[in-house]
């Protein structure tokens, strides 16, 4: 097990990752982590697999009772210390994230700050888990509800936001008294390893926060879903994998939080502020190179402003610098791997063959690697695959619409329901469209809406449950009704 100079050369304090790696158990099986921008080997890690997951669940189960029995204030103080340590090591955490995931360093720094914000939020929320009392039907009894931690939780995080997703899932579980077993994505385990090391420094007792590093996603997931001591699964990833996990959890009726695929519409009405709409579309489409579950995947623009919007949006897209995430001014980094690159290329090639018009981009940058030029396609139709499937890359297909009522139906015509965006100024239209869009989150005249203070999640086949806000803590609590007689 080791890390290479390709990683440590970017760090002010390499011991953050080297000490964390040295603390891991030995394993005969190993897997490698690479920089998607350069292909350089970053680290060789122990592949803990199903056996490691089983051992982690056992540790979490043993620690559960004592952790749940801690006072809310004690849990809050440890979370607060974790938050402070994340801020103190923010630069190195951002560098680790950029090295293993590829996103621009400025975006990585923003993500680390966002992760810290979730930890701070739930450090505070730990002290605000309230029950309730309510009037009984007779004077001989009292009726009340208390809330208790569900128990051991299994957490599976994705590669596209490998720091903020850890914080968003783990911190509410720990805050309310649950222990957890975290399995980060095999492409991006290093920032999770560093965050886990900082959590241990913060004072979480042994067995409370457990880490399983592995390239064997399916066997590890099977352990977490099948183990009777694991009372809840939290997963962010594809809808296909989410369905699979649901089936595995069905026999135990296990509690689940699922944040799955998205197919976000971005609607620009004729009365919109076009400059603001272009800025919002750049954020909603090209953040993280389009590799986000809330990325604007279909842009619908009303006919009277279609040409003007396309021209301005394409011009703004041409100004985006693509390259290594460590290079100054980079706005878009590499796609995560070759499969992602090939999917993006296929969507664009098929759209062009079917009659879409290429406004900018449309191909690889460089002779090799996974840098794909930010791409704008106009004259796209709803039948094209780029408009029917989630591309998960820096491609913006723009569709024209004539009827404001019809566009809502077009936007809702998908199995997904995570996020939607629209730009308009007429107040009546704003309320009508916001209520009609069949999505868990709607951004109105903004291209970014994620916040630790707000509930994040979707409807339909985009998942169940919410993360962030007080609702995120509720996902890790069971409600218990107490009826006290003979009063």
UniProtKB/TrEMBL annotation:
The family annotation for this protein states: Belongs to the aldehyde dehydrogenase family.
Q: In terms of domain of life, where is this protein from? A: Bacteria
UniProt keyword Oxidoreductase, yes or no:
yes
The protein's matches in CDD domains, at most eight in alphabetical order, are given as:
ALDH_F5_SSADH_GabD
Domain named Aldehyde dehydrogenase: residues: 27-481
- PANTHER family reported in the protein's UniProt record: SUCCINATE-SEMIALDEHYDE DEHYDROGENASE, MITOCHONDRIAL
**What is the protein name stated in its UniProt record?**
Succinate-semialdehyde dehydrogenase (NADP(+))
Q: Does the keyword Oxidoreductase apply?
A: yes
Biological processes, Gene Ontology terms: gamma-aminobutyric acid catabolic process
Q: Which Gene3D superfamilies match?
A: Aldehyde Dehydrogenase, Chain A, domain 1, Aldehyde Dehydrogenase, Chain A, domain 2
In the record, what terms sit under GO molecular function? Answer: succinate-semialdehyde dehydrogenase (NAD+) activity
Naturally occurring in which organism (per UniProt): Xaviernesmea oryzae
Give the keywords, sorted: Oxidoreductase
């Amino acid at each position: 097990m080791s890390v290479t100079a390709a990683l440590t050369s970017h760090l002010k304090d390499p011991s953050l990752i080297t000490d964390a790696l040295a603390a891991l158990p030995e394993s005969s099986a190993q897997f490698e982590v690479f920089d998607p921008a350069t292909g350089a080997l970053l680290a060789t890690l122990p592949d803990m697999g199903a056996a490691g997951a089983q051992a982690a669940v056992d540790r979490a189960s043993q620690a559960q009772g004592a952790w749940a029995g801690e006072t809310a204030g004690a849990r809050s103080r440890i979370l607060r210390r974790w938050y402070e340590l994340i801020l103190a090591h923010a630069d190195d955490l951002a560098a680790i994230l950029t090295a293993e995931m590829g996103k621009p360093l400025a975006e990585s720094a923003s993500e680390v700050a966002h992760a810290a914000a979730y930890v701070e939020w739930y450090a505070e929320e730990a002290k605000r888990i309230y029950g309730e009392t309510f009037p009984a039907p007779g004077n001989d009894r009292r009726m009340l509800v208390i809330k208790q931690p569900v128990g051991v939780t299994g957490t599976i995080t994705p590669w596209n936001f490998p720091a903020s997703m850890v914080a968003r899932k783990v911190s509410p579980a720990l805050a309310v008294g649950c222990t957890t077993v975290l399995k980060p994505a095999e492409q991006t385990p290093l920032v999770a390893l560093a965050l886990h090391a900082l959590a241990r420094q913060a004072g979480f007792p042994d067995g409370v926060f457990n880490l399983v590093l592995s390239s064997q996603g399916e066997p590890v997931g099977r352990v977490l879903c099948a183990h009777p001591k694991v009372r809840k699964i939290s997963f962010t990833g594809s809808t296909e994998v989410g369905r699979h996990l649901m089936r595995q959890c069905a026999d135990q009726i296990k509690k689940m939080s699922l944040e799955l695929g998205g197919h976000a519409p971005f609607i620009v009405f004729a009365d919109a502020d076009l400059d603001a709409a272009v800025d919002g579309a750049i954020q909603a489409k090209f953040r993280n190179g389009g590799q986000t579950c809330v990325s604007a995947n279909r842009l619908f623009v009303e006919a009277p402003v279609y040409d003007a919007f396309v021209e301005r949006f394409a011009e703004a897209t041409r100004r985006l610098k693509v390259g290594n995430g460590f290079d100054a001014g980079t706005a878009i980094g590499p796609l995560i791997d070759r499969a992602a690159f090939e999917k993006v290329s296929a969507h664009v090639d098929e759209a062009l063959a079917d009659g879409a018009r290429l406004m900018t981009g449309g191909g690889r940058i460089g002779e090799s690697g996974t840098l794909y030029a930010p791409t704008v396609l106009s004259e796209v139709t709803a039948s094209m695959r780029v408009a029917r499937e989630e591309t998960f890359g820096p491609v913006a297909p723009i569709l024209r619409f004539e009827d404001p009522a019809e566009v809502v139906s077009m936007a809702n015509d998908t199995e997904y329901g995570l996020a939607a965006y629209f730009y308009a100024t007429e107040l009546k239209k704003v309320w009508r469209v916001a209520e009609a869009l069949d999505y868990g989150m709607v951004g109105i005249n903004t291209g970014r809406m994620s916040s630790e203070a707000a509930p994040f999640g979707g409807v339909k086949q985009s998942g169940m449950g919410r993360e962030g806000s007080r609702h995120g803590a509720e996902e890790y609590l069971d409600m218990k009704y107490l009826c006290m007689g003979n009063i």
